[in-house]
UniProtKB/TrEMBL annotation, chain A:
Keywords: ATP-binding, Hydrolase, Nucleotide-binding. SUPFAM superfamilies: Cyclophilin-like. This is Biotin-dependent carboxyltransferase family protein. The keyword ATP-binding applies.
Length: 307, 253
């Protein structure tokens, strides 16, 4: 059987390898990592017949281009973008056949920020601490793609489900990013007016965001008391408020502990949209009552369960 | 499960909290080693703070109490007495439980516990040979009011405990140095601190697992590999691990 690899012709800025994350080691300072838009990552895996935890590529804004050494089934999803195989237009959000030696071109995102590229068999870089994800905070996992790099692909599981057709494509992020937050643990470090400001003001997505956090621009939040909070554990979606008073929403590569107070935590279901919101997108924080379950605003990709 | 590899409930010395009066985070286990720990702590004394829908932050009065809580959580987890929790993250005086199905139920459960003091039985200690020749050694000596040669003696006379990890994989915040030796961070952080640097900030000692920017005061360096993801366990220093620094002459490898 021929070797299954893809060569990186155009790496993108940056494109990383991501699966569903690196869990169980936060106490050692290991961030969780994983696809910022896990719904999209799961969906492209499903489209090519992979288990949902297979490693995919996550692009940022400008896509990437790859040449495959073997015939491979691929799918591009997440942020909508033009897809070409050897220069010919191909489908976005569907399984695409890439012949041996052909170039798969993932164009710049038309809406949203991050497109996902799955290959049947998955990107088979060596896992580090149980995950193939690139961790941009601490440098674990494979480095971001570089021009000329070669990535190994796995073999599709024999008897696997095979490519899936007709999955619902995702239209892209909304024009306004609504982030439902649950207050706490350190809401009492802020004034009542700061809380009002957070939940009633118009914030915007800052261009300074990355896989570690979504940064916002808008009115600063006033602290009720100064001083330093002793370091404490941080979770995905934590809205941390550094000394400049501007909320930062922690995404997958967030540090595991931190000393700035967390005013609230964004619902995990809303974070995929946060990861797709382009700079300048209006942001509204919606405080919600403790643990009252609300239907998700986002269409979830159906998850495939495997034994 | 892979999780507990580096973080077994290492019995620790029962050092008492330092007397009150210092800055807030200097309270954390900053006192001299005491022969025994305090009494059991009722779970009701622990504050449970909400963290999203699937996590819980347990806050204790001080670092000593949160270390005892952390040890008890790991013990109960191993004994199968804890509902499924994906991450148990100790910090200065809190323990974060993340990936929990029903945080309210777990909070109620913890409130009913009696948390025993940290085990004071002797246990394995990680020994780190250190060349005490750090770039900030003179500055630290000045802050302590001692000669530079005495820094090694003072720093290596104490047994440390990894209170928690953070900043980078395998970077431990070690407590045990008496509170009077707390030093501030450098006014200007260095853009690159070499791997293996032994450094001080506030009440903590830390060892940089890899070269990185850093603002702590460098007093020495070790050749031990603090972090290797290909090794089992990857982290030499996990929460709860006890540590001793062994002074080495600069010439004697």
């Amino acid at each position: 059987m021929s070797e299954r690899t893809v060569a990186v012709l155009r790496a993108g800025a940056p494109t990383t390898v991501q699966d569903l994350g690196r869990f169980g080691q936060a106490h050692l300072g290991v961030p969780r990592s994983g696809a910022l838009d896990p719904f999209a990552a799961r969906l492209v895996n499903r489209l090519v017949g992979n288990p949902e935890e297979a490693a995919v590529l996550e692009t940022t804004v400008d896509g990437c281009a790859l040449r495959s050494t073997a015939e491979v089934t691929a799918a591009v999803g997440g942020a909508p973008c033009p897809v070409r195989v050897d220069g010919r237009p191909a489908a976005w959000g569907a399984a695409v056949r890439v012949p041996a030696g052909a170039v798969l071109e993932v164009g710049a995102a038309v809406r949203g920020l991050r497109s996902y590229v799955a290959f049947a068999g998955g990107v088979a870089v060596d896992p580090v601490l149980g995950s193939r994800s690139t961790d941009l905070l601490s440098g674990l996992g494979p480095p971001p793609l570089r021009d000329g790099a070669v990535l190994p692909l796995g073999h599709p599981a024999p008897g696997g489900p095979g490519p899936c057709y007709g999955a619902p494509p995702w239209p892209g992020p909304p024009d306004e990013l609504v982030l439902r937050i649950r207050l706490g643990p350190r809401t009492d470090w802020f004034t009542a007016s700061a809380l009002r400001t957070l939940t009633t003001s118009a914030y915007r997505v800052s261009p300074a965001g990355n896989r570690i956090g979504l940064r916002t621009e808008g009115p600063a939040l006033e602290r009720a008391h100064e001083g330093e909070l002793p370091s404490e554990g941080m979770v995905l979606g934590a809205v941390q408020v550094p000394p400049d008073g501007l909320p930062v929403v922690f995404l997958a590569d967030h540090p595991t502990t931190g000393g700035y107070p967390v005013i609230g935590v964004v619902l995990e279901d809303d974070l995929a949209a946060a990861a797709q919101a382009v700079p300048g997108t209006p942001v509204r924080f919606l405080a919600r009552s403790p643990r009252a379950r609300m239907p998700s605003a986002r269409v979830r990709a159906p998850t495939s369960r495997r034994p | 499960m892979r999780h507990t590899s580096g973080s077994e409930n290492t019995p620790s010395d029962g050092s008492l909290s330092s007397p009150a009066g210092g800055p807030e985070n200097a309270r954390i286990s900053g006192a001299e080693n005491a022969p025994e720990g305090g009494g059991p702590c009722p779970g009701e004394a622990i504050k449970a703070l909400p963290v999203g829908d699937n996590a819980l932050l347990l806050e204790c009065a001080d670092g000593e109490a949160s270390a005892a809580l952390h040890a008890e959580l790991l013990r109960r987890r191993r004994a199968g007495e804890l509902p499924a929790v994906r991450e148990v993250v100790p910090a200065a005086r809190t323990v974060l439980l993340d990936g929990v199905d029903d945080p309210d139920r777990l909070a109620a459960l913890v409130a009913g516990w009696e948390i025993p003091p940290l085990d004071s039985r002797p246990a394995a200690v990680v020994e780190l040979p250190v060349h005490y020749d750090g770039a900030d050694l003179a500055e630290v000596a000045k802050a302590w009011g001692v000669r530079p040669e005495e820094v090694a003696e003072i720093h290596s006379a104490v047994e440390y405990r990894v209170a928690f990890c953070g900043f980078a994989p395998g970077f431990g915040y070690l407590t045990g140095l008496p509170a009077r030796y707390a030093v501030p961070r450098r006014a200007t952080p260095r853009t690159a601190v070499p791997a293996g640097s032994v450094a001080l900030a506030g009440p903590y000692t830390g060892v940089y697992p890899r070269s990185s920017p850093g603002g702590w005061q460098l007093i020495g360096r070790t050749d031990e590999v603090l972090w290797d993801p290909g090794r089992e366990p990857a982290a030499l220093l996990a929460p709860g691990t006890r540590v001793r620094f062994l002074p080495r002459r600069a010439e004697a490898g």
